[in-house]
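Progress report, Aim 2. The chain analyzed during this reporting quarter is listed below.
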Amino acid sequence: MRQFYLEYKDEQELLELAAKIPWGQNLLIMHQVKGREERKYYLNATDKMAWSRSVLLNQIKANAYQNHLINPKQSNFENVLPVHLSEQASEALKSEYNLDFLGINKPVLERELENRLIENIRDLLLELGYGFSYIGNQYRLRLNQKEYFIDLLFYHRFLKCLVAIELKTVEFELEFAGKMNFYLDLLDEQKKQPDDNPSIGIILCPTKDNIEVEYS
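Predicted structure tokens for the chain:
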């Protein structure tokens, strides 16, 4: 307790944030994180996303704060989501995903990439982060007697919204976002529950070393 007092006695903002999360998470941040802004980031994220101690530790080990600074997410969350949900979505979702667990070392078709992800769904859920629940692949939607298929569909328990993922094996193109927004409109009209937040879309596109992310 004395160390906690000494660390935060002149930091009213951090002290107020620390009061919102469990003591175990506070101890972890106090011992593992030294920079003020970095502490603020993890205190905020732990509160908003209800991170357990183990999830928080994994986020710290994965340098979530540094990645947040280096690779800001490209999204229109602030334009289409309520302010509180926009902030939570930005905290919960990554700017890049590492899919090395698939063992792919050559170009593949989108369907093969999808099949590999389904075969390794446990590893995919771990990489996506805490809160994702898998619903299905090639999820079917209908409009005016036409059928449309979302590559992967999830529900995020803390954001309380459907999350559609589209897989691409080429660099991002603007038309991908248009297609995703169409899918999100259908999800909100046909599948979203009354107490759910607006659906979110993730478009996974390859870069040299990782999978780059575009959000809708």
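The chain has eleven helices and six strands. Residues 208-212 have pLDDT under 50 and may be disordered. These observations will guide the mutagenesis work planned for the next reporting period.
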